[in-house]
């Protein structure tokens, strides 16, 4: 049984109809098969199953077993002509052709095989004598090969022939909802505290119906700088219609990996080759996001069945797909006029949301002279020195705009902060925007009740007394 399962991995489909052929000598004339739609990475094995000669009416006669069939196979199937006649006129995907291909795969002989490496686009197999040939992927050649699937077809060759390869793979696309939009994209930016919607879309292979079972497992890795909100849902999408089928997909979250698996997708009769499986969930940036150009990538892959020939244990994965979330940091350095660090200040950062400034983060006064506002996105901000060090003048409020640029490939290419009253330095790689705040000592009036107030009182009293003396002297002088 184990051997049978291994042999069933790579069988291809038969074309079993005889075409009109010129009268040629089977001993000297050879033919060519061109496989279209091939991709690199396949190793095709070509087995000569039936051989014969061509008569004047372009009919293959004297059919015998070819060298590609073992002695045990010839005994098992019986007379070659009778077996070929039972398959005459059957289509590529007929049940009879598939059943014979799977059964035949147990009785293939290495003495009658030609091996060909696939090429991108078209693969040519030449030097073939008239007869039937089984063409299949080499057993095990695509096991665990990312983004690959076994091809299945079997054809009769009695002239030069072109055949379209029947192999297809699912696709998986991970996207994130653009900040401030309903559209999904490859990358965007968010700030700490926002819910971030993600979407995973899987398509199925065009030959999905040929699989007796279909393994379907999505794994999505959440980065350390994000927290999953445990709200994933799965939808079956047909055209513009969606249906929630989350109950069919057990969803687990272990460590930082969301696993969404159907076991055998064939268990849901509503799923077809044209269906899309869509997963949506949200997460949010926590206190430990990665700033700048690296971003916080969410990475997903799909494990799927890749052999339609009855080998249900053969699986592989799609290439990884990711959606990236960028975020930035404002660093405020508080210094004296001599550039020495200055403690005792407190700052509050506001962002303009719906045309109103909303507090994002506040640092109370303390021993720090550096203030890191982490997890910011593009937009309009205002920085306020909410606590001023004793003996220094307050900084005027700074209004500024952060702008991050993400290109069509999802890469963060530029980061700026601009203001009419302040100058910022920015680094797109680290995602850090820096502002230096210089505080100057102020010519401050003494506080009420201090020695300065006493001096003012004395001076004022002296002036009053002096004015009184002058008034008396002047009055006496007038009376004389």
TrEMBL record:
UniProt-listed InterPro entries: Fim_isopep_form_D2_dom, Ig-like_fold, LPXTG_anchor, SpaA_PFL_dom_1
Outline the extent of the Gram-positive cocci surface proteins LPxTG domain.
439-476
TM segment ranges:
455-473
* Top-level division of the source organism's lineage: Bacteria
Domain SpaA-like prealbumin fold span(s) in chain numbering = 329-403
Q: Does the keyword Signal apply?
A: yes
Family annotation (Pfam families): Gram_pos_anchor, SpaA
Going by the UniProt record, its keywords in alphabetical order are:
Cell wall, Membrane, Peptidoglycan-anchor, Secreted, Signal, Transmembrane, Transmembrane helix
Gene3D superfamilies given in the database record: 2.60.40.740, Immunoglobulins (2.60.40.10)
Signal peptide coordinates: 1-25
The protein, known as? Surface protein
Which species?
A: Streptococcus sanguinis SK1087
């Amino acid at each position: 049984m184990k051997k049978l399962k291994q042999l069933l991995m790579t069988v291809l489909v038969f074309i079993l109809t005889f075409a009109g052929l010129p009268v040629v000598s089977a001993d000297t004339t050879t033919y060519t098969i061109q496989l279209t739609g091939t991709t690199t990475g396949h190793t095709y094995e070509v087995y000569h199953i039936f051989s014969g000669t061509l008569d004047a009416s372009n009919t293959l006669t004297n059919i015998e077993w070819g060298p590609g069939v073992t002695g045990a196979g010839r005994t098992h199937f019986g007379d070659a002509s009778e077996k070929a006649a039972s398959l005459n006129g059957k289509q590529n995907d007929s049940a009879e052709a598939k059943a014979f291909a799977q059964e035949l795969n147990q009785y293939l002989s290495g003495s009658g095989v030609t091996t060909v490496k696939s090429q991108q686009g078209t693969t040519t197999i030449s030097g073939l004598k008239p007869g039937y040939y089984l063409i299949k992927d080499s057993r095990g050649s695509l096991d665990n090969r990312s983004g690959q699937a076994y091809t299945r077809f079997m054809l009769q060759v009695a002239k030069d022939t072109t055949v379209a390869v029947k192999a297809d793979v699912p696709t998986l696309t991970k996207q994130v909802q653009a900040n401030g939009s309903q559209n999904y994209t490859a990358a965007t930016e968010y700030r700490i505290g926002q819910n971030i919607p993600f979407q995973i879309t899987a398509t199925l292979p065009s030959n999905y119906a040929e699989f007796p079972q279909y393994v379907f497992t999505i794994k999505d890795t959440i980065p350390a700088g994000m927290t999953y909100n445990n709200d994933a849902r799965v939808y079956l999408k047909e055209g513009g219609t969606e249906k929630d089928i989350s109950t069919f997909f057990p969803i687990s979250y272990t460590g930082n990996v969301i696993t969404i698996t159907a076991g055998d997708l064939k268990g849901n009769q509503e799923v077809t080759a044209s269906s899309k499986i869509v997963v949506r969930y949200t997460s949010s940036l926590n206190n430990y996001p990665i700033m700048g150009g690296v971003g916080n990538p969410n990475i997903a892959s799909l494990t799927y069945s890749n052999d339609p020939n009855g080998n249900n244990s053969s699986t592989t994965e799609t290439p990884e797909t990711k959606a990236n979330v960028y975020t930035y940091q404002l660093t405020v350095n508080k210094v004296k006029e001599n550039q020495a660090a200055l403690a005792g200040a407190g700052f509050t950062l506001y962002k303009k949301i719906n045309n109103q400034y909303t507090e994002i983060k506040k640092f109370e006064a303390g021993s720090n002279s550096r203030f890191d506002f982490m997890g910011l996105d593009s937009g309009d901000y205002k920085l306020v020195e909410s606590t001023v060090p004793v003996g220094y003048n307050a900084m005027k409020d700074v209004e500024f705009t952060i702008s991050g640029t993400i290109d069509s490939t999802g890469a963060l290419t530029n980061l700026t902060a601009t203001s009419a009253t302040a100058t910022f330095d920015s680094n797109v790689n680290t995602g850090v925007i820096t502002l230096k705040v210089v505080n100057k000592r102020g010519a401050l009036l003494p506080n009420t009740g201090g020695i300065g107030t006493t001096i003012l009182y004395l001076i004022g009293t002296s002036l009053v007394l002096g004015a009184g003396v002058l008034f008396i002297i002047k009055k006496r002088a007038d009376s004389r």
